[in-house]
């Protein structure tokens, strides 16, 4: 598996190269940008809001 270089911080040169080529800054693919990257996890909602609007799934004990 060679995934070590994929998620690392981009160098300035690599970042510029991707922007020049209109490549995704996240996965370096063309056709989309990092904010629409399909390889990016979409669940960006914080999970630590304890009962703000009353979700029934929030009161499930895990032990
Ligand atoms: Zn991408």
UniProtKB/TrEMBL annotation:
<dbReference type="GO" id="GO:0008270">
    <property type="term" value="F:zinc ion binding"/>
</dbReference>
<feature type="compositionally biased region" description="Polar residues">
    <location>
        <begin position="46"/>
        <end position="63"/>
    </location>
</feature>
<dbReference type="GO" id="GO:0006397">
    <property type="term" value="P:mRNA processing"/>
</dbReference>
<keyword id="KW-0863">Zinc-finger</keyword>
<dbReference type="InterPro" id="IPR036875">
    <property type="entry name" value="Znf_CCHC_sf"/>
</dbReference>
<keyword id="KW-0862">Zinc</keyword>
<feature type="domain" description="CCHC-type">
    <location>
        <begin position="24"/>
        <end position="38"/>
    </location>
</feature>
<keyword id="KW-0479">Metal-binding</keyword>
<feature type="region of interest" description="Disordered">
    <location>
        <begin position="36"/>
        <end position="63"/>
    </location>
</feature>
<protein>
    <recommendedName>
        <fullName>CCHC-type domain-containing protein</fullName>
    </recommendedName>
</protein>
<dbReference type="GO" id="GO:0003676">
    <property type="term" value="F:nucleic acid binding"/>
</dbReference>
<keyword id="KW-0507">mRNA processing</keyword>
<dbReference type="InterPro" id="IPR001878">
    <property type="entry name" value="Znf_CCHC"/>
</dbReference>
């Amino acid at each position: 598996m060679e995934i070590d270089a994929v998620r690392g911080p981009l160098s300035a040169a690599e970042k510029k190269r991707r922007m020049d080529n209109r490549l995704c800054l996240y996965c370096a693919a063309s056709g989309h940008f990092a904010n629409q990257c399909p390889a990016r996890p979409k669940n960006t909602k914080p999970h630590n809001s304890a009962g703000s609007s009353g979700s029934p799934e929030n009161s499930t004990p895990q032990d």
